[in-house]
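2024-03-11 09:14:02 DEBUG pipeline.ingest accepted 1 chain
2024-03-11 09:14:02 DEBUG pipeline.ingest length=341
2024-03-11 09:14:03 DEBUG pipeline.predict start
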Amino acid sequence: MLKLAIVILNWNGKHLLERFLPSVIGHCPAYAKIFVADNGSVDGSAGFLKQHYPGITFLDLKKNHGYTGGYNRSLNLIQAEYYVLLNSDIEVTQGWIDPIVDIMDKNPDIAACQPKILSWHERSLFEYAGASGGYIDKYGYPFCRGRVFGHLEEDSGQYNASVDVFWATGACMFVRGSDFHLAGKLDNDFFAHMEEIDLCWRLKRMGKRVICLPLSVVYHVGGGTLPKNNPRKTYLNFRNNLLLLAKNLPARQFYLVLLKRLILDQVAAAKFLLSGQHQDFLAVYKATFSVLRNIRKKRKEGKALPYIAVSGVYGKSIVKEYYLMGKKRFSQLDASRFMNL
């Protein structure tokens, strides 16, 4: 069996492959193999790879299955001890693989791990999608060491400790192959956004650990598929965030959280409306109605794994902490309030 499969999912990202694939190839150990899985690109990506990188295995998925469907289809075709789910807009660095493989080899209970993610554009800053490891608050809002909502901290080594986290970023996630499949893979209904949080929650419900190892460092462009201010992204983020709660919380907890989240989401929708972002306003309501239609389905799916308390949850409202109390940095949060959920 292959030790490590680096799987890059591509959708019309030829320009990104041209820029970033050389760094992946240049820092690929002998025990690893690179795959590019293509979600039906029409920008010449396939021809570019065949001409310039014939040694890389190209998986033609024919059409756009999203992040979730694209990876599920690809990883079904690859047998490996470890997978690396790697965005096409990531610049890797020397030694980014070995420390993570080493710690996962030594700790079979670690199912997933991410490196430290810094901004490719402003290399001293953490990057939005993962920073130095992800968490959620008691209402399901995600944040990271180094990034709370839109505030990105400067990296001065303050989050260099290797720690257990709630979720590892899908931009650069190492995941044990056997655990990925046992957990049920990624949820195809998510399509894209927050699917990695759902996967990590299910891994933790299996009694596994998720960690961040900042000794490994990569640089992420971000927003390569959908720009930051995009109604489609707004819809997916609001919908998928509620769906992962529906799947992973016991019924009594879920419905209490849902009531409060519906109020908070209406506040977010009103903020979009007052800012003139009418399509984002509508996206929040479309997301809410979609979740309400699918609660029963997701509750049923969630019962496939035991509901156990998992670590890495902040026991306060990160919305209140950030917007009302001005806590923009992860280090300002009350460390004693991280709990099991």
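2024-03-11 09:14:41 DEBUG pipeline.report The chain has ten helices and 15 strands.
2024-03-11 09:14:41 DEBUG pipeline.predict end
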